C-alpha cells in the first residue's frame, strides 16, 4: 500500500490549483447570467459599470470578438443575442479586483425580449425524439426476439416506472481558469480540468489557433466528477477577456453560477419491464428511457446501455428518447448512464425477487451469463457471482428475514438490500515518455490528470514496476499539455489507458539503457494507438455487488444507512490505499443519490432553485457511518499490461438501488422516484 505522492503538498497547502498561480498583472472577470428562461437580448447597458473605477472592459454580444469554431453552442460565448436558458452567461466584466468586477457586473443592465421557457421533462412530451446515438457512440435503440410478446406471456411480470432527478457534480474546487496571451500570440491557460490535451485542442479550435500555440497547465485538480471532462464557458470567457483587456485574467465560477454553466446529470423517466418464469429466470427485459437535452446542443445519456449486457434473457429491448428543453446542456456525471440506468434495473430486479419469492442474491446468480447477451461477445472476465457470494457472506445476508417490514427496533424499522454494479473497462490511445537521468532517477511524463483519484501515484507505481526501480527514484510529471498527449480522466479509463502508455515507454527506455546514463540522459516514448486497434474482441467490464442496511424512523420517515459494503471485481488493483478510497467515495455519492441529491427546477422561471451546498444536499461524515469496500482477486489477460480495470465510477453504480431496496425491505414501501425523502415515505408509513 502506498500513500499519495502529493499527499504532503495537499495537506500543507503547497499544492497549487488553477486560480492560485502567481501571474503578474492579473485582472479579474465576473460573469453576468441571463435572468430570463428564454428569449433574445435587446440591449446591454454598460454606462454605470464602465464609470466604476478599476473597470477595464465589458464583454457581451454587442462587442465580443468573433470566435472561429462555434459548433459547441455552450462555448459560443457572446456570439448571439439568443438566450437559450436562464443562467446562461450573457455578459462579463473585467476589472482590477474581483470585488470591482462583481460590483460592475451587478450594475450592468441587460434588457430582454422574453419568451416562456419549456423546462419540464415528461414521458409524454411531444418533442421527444430518437437520437442518432447515445454517449459516446452507442445506438439509441436495440432489440432481440419478440420482447413485447415474451413479456406478455411470462408467468411473473414487473412493470414499473422509475425517475431520477437532475443532479449536479459540485466538485470542491470550482471551475477556474487563468488566461494569459503572450506577445507571440501563444495562449497559456492555468485551468482546472480533467484533461489538459482535450482543453488544448478544443480551445485552439475555438480561437483559430494551432494547438501548439495553446498550453494548458493543471497538475492539481480539486475534483470534477465529469463536469471538467471538456472545457466549459469559463475557459472561453477567461481567454476572451484576457485578449480584450491585454493582460492576464482570472475567472473562477462562483458556486451559485455552477448550477447553470458547468454540467449536470439529466433527469430520467425509465420504464422497466421484466418477464420471468416461476423460477425467476428472465424471458424478457424491456428498458425504455426518456431524458432531456438542451436547445443549445444534444447530449443523450446512455442510460439503458448496462441493461444490454447485465443479465441473460432471449427477448430484449432498450430505447432512448430525448427532448430539447430550454435548460442548460446536461453532461457527464460520475458513471454516466450506468448510474441512473442500473438504479432502475436493480430496483426492478428486487421487485422481481419479491414477486417470485426468490432471494435477491440468488435471483441475480440465476440470471448470470458468460457472454454479452446482445453482442454475443465473451466477457474478458466476469466475476459478478463471486462478488455477490463474497458480499453476502461478509454482510451476514444469510440471517436476513426475507419478509419486508418485520424487523423493528423501537421506532426504527430495519432492512437490508442488495444491488449489482457494473462499468465498462474502457481504454483509450495515449502517449507517454520515460527518461533516465544521469543521477539515477527517472522522469515519466504524460498529460494525464489527477482529479483526486490517486492517478499520479498509480502511474508512478506502474513505472517503478516496469523499470524495476524504487518508487523513490521515479518523478511523475502530469497535468500539462506540453507533455505527451493523454485522454481525459473519465470513463474509468485513466489508469488503464495512461498506464499502458507508461509501461510501453518504460519498456522502450529499458531497451535503450546499456550501462551508464550519458550527461544528456536517455529518453524513450510510446504511443498505444496501434496496440489498441489490434486487441482481440471481448466484452470488457468491471462488476460488483453493493449491500446496504438501513433504519427508517417510523415517526419521521428519516432514513439512515447503518452500514454498507461493496465487493468489486476490477482486475488487478494497482494501489489498494487509493483504490479503497475511490470505491468508498463512489458509494458515498450513491448514498447521496438515494437519499438527498436533487436539483429542483422552477417551472415558471426555468431555473434550478438550488444555488449552493446548503440547498443541494450531499452526504456529510455523520451520514456515512460504516462503509467498507473489498474486492475479489481477478486475473484478466485481455485488458492491458497491468491487468487493470477502471475503479473510479463503479462504486456509485448500484449503490442507490441497494439503499432503495433496503428501504423497501425495512418498510414494505417501494419508492421509485429518487431521492427517498421523509416526505415520500410518510405518505405510506
Descriptive overview:
The structure is a single chain. With 685 residues, this protein is α+β, with helices and mostly antiparallel strands. Helix content is 26%, strand content 25%. The chain has 17 helices and 28 strands. The longest helix is centred in the last third of the chain and has 20 residues, at 576-595. The model has no long low-confidence stretch (mean pLDDT 97).
Can you summarize this structure?
The chain is an alpha+beta fold.
Which properties best describe this structure?
685 residues, alpha+beta, five-stranded mixed sheet, 28 strands
Total helices: the number is 17
Order of strands in the sheet with most strands: 3-5-1-13-10-11-12
| Low-pLDDT segments | none
Q: What is the strand content? A: 15-25%
Number of strands: 28
CA gyration radius, whole angstroms:
26 Å
Indicate the overall shape: globular
Amino acid at each position: 500500500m502506498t500513500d499519495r505522492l502529493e499527499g504532503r503538498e495537499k495537506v500543507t497547502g503547497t499544492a497549487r490549483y488553477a486560480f492560485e498561480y502567481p501571474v503578474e498583472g492579473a485582472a479579474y472577470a465576473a460573469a453576468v447570467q441571463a435572468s430570463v428562461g428564454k428569449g433574445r437580448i435587446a440591449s446591454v447597458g454598460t454606462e454605470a459599470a464602465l464609470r466604476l473605477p478599476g473597470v477595464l472592459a465589458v464583454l457581451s454580444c454587442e462587442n465580443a470578438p468573433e470566435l472561429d469554431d462555434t459548433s459547441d453552442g455552450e462555448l459560443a460565448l457572446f456570439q448571439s443575442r439568443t438566450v437559450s436558458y436562464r443562467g446562461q452567461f450573457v455578459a462579463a466584466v473585467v476589472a482590477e479586483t474581483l470585488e470591482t468586477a462583481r460590483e460592475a457586473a451587478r450594475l450592468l443592465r441587460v434588457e430582454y425580449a422574453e419568451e416562456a421557457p419549456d423546462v419540464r421533462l415528461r414521458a409524454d412530451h411531444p418533442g421527444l425524439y430518437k437520437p442518432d446515438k447515445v454517449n459516446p457512440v452507442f445506438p439509441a435503440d436495440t432489440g432481440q426476439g419478440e420482447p413485447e410478446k415474451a413479456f406478455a406471456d411470462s408467468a411473473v411480470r414487473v412493470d414499473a416506472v422509475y425517475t431520477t432527478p437532475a443532479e449536479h457534480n459540485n466538485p470542491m474546487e470550482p471551475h477556474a481558469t487563468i488566461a494569459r496571451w503572450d506577445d507571440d500570440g501563444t495562449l497559456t491557460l492555468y485551468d482546472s480540468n480533467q484533461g489538459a490535451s482535450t482543453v488544448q485542442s478544443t480551445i485552439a479550435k475555438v480561437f483559430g489557433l494551432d494547438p501548439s500555440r495553446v498550453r494548458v497547465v493543471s497538475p492539481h485538480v480539486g475534483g470534477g466528477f465529469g463536469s471538467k471532462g471538456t472545457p466549459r464557458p469559463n475557459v472561453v470567457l477567461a481567454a476572451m477577456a484576457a485578449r480584450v483587456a491585454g493582460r492576464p485574467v482570472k475567472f473562477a465560477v462562483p458556486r451559485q453560477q455552477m448550477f447553470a454553466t458547468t454540467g449536470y446529470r439529466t433527469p430520467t423517466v425509465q420504464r422497466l419491464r421484466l418477464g420471468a418464469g416461476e423460477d425467476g429466470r428472465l424471458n424478457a427485459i424491456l428498458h425504455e428511457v426518456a431524458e432531456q437535452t438542451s436547445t443549445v446542443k444534444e447530449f443523450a445519456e446512455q442510460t439503458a446501455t448496462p441493461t444490454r449486457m447485465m443479465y441473460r434473457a432471449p427477448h430484449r429491448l432498450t430505447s432512448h428518447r430525448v427532448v430539447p428543453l430550454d435548460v442548460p446542456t446536461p453532461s457527464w456525471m460520475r458513471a454516466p448512464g450506468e448510474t441512473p440506468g442500473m438504479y432502475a434495473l436493480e430496483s426492478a430486479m428486487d421487485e422481481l425477487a419479491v414477486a417470485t419469492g426468490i432471494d435477491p442474491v440468488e435471483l441475480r446468480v440465476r440470471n448470470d451469463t458468460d457472454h454479452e447477451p446482445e453482442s454475443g461477445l465473451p466477457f474478458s472476465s466476469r466475476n459478478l457471482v463471486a462478488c455477490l457470494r463474497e458480499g453476502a457472506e461478509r454482510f451476514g445476508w444469510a440471517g436476513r428475514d426475507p419478509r419486508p417490514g418485520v424487523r423493528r427496533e423501537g421506532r426504527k424499522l430495519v432492512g437490508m438490500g442488495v444491488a449489482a454494479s457494473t462499468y465498462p473497462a474502457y481504454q483509450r490511445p495515449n502517449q507517454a515518455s520515460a527518461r533516465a537521468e544521469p543521477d539515477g532517477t527517472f522522469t515519466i511524463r504524460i498529460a494525464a490528470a489527477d482529479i483526486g483519484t490517486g492517478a499520479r501515484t498509480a502511474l508512478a507505481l506502474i513505472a517503478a514496476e516496469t523499470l524495476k526501480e524504487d518508487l523513490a527514484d521515479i518523478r511523475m510529471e502530469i497535468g500539462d499539455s506540453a507533455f505527451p498527449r493523454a485522454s481525459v480522466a473519465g470513463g474509468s479509463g485513466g489508469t488503464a489507458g495512461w498506464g499502458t502508455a507508461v509501461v510501453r515507454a518504460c519498456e522502450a527506455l529499458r531497451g535503450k539503457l546499456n550501462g551508464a546514463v550519458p550527461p544528456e540522459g536517455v529518453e524513450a516514448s510510446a504511443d498505444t494507438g496501434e496496440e489498441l486497434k489490434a486487441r482481440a474482441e471481448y466484452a470488457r467490464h468491471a462488476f460488483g455487488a453493493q449491500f446496504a442496511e438501513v433504519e427508517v424512523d417510523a415517526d419521521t420517515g428519516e432514513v439512515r444507512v447503518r452500514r454498507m459494503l461493496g465487493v468489486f471485481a476490477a482486475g488487478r488493483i494497482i494501489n489498494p490505499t487509493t483504490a479503497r478510497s475511490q470505491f468508498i467515495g463512489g458509494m458515498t455519492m450513491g448514498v447521496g443519490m438515494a437519499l438527498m441529491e436533487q436539483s429542483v427546477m422552477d417551472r415558471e422561471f426555468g431555473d434550478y432553485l438550488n444555488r449552493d451546498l446548503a440547498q443541494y444536499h450531499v452526504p456529510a461524515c455523520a451520514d456515512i457511518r460504516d462503509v467498507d469496500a473489498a474486492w475479489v482477486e481477478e486475473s484478466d489477460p485481455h485488458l492491458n499490461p497491468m491487468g487493470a480495470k477502471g475503479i473510479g465510477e463503479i462504486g456509485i453504480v448500484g449503490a442507490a438501488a441497494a439503499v432503495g431496496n433496503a428501504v423497501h425491505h425495512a418498510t414494505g414501501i417501494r419508492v421509485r422516484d429518487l431521492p427517498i425523502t421523509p416526505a415520500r415515505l410518510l405518505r405510506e408509513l
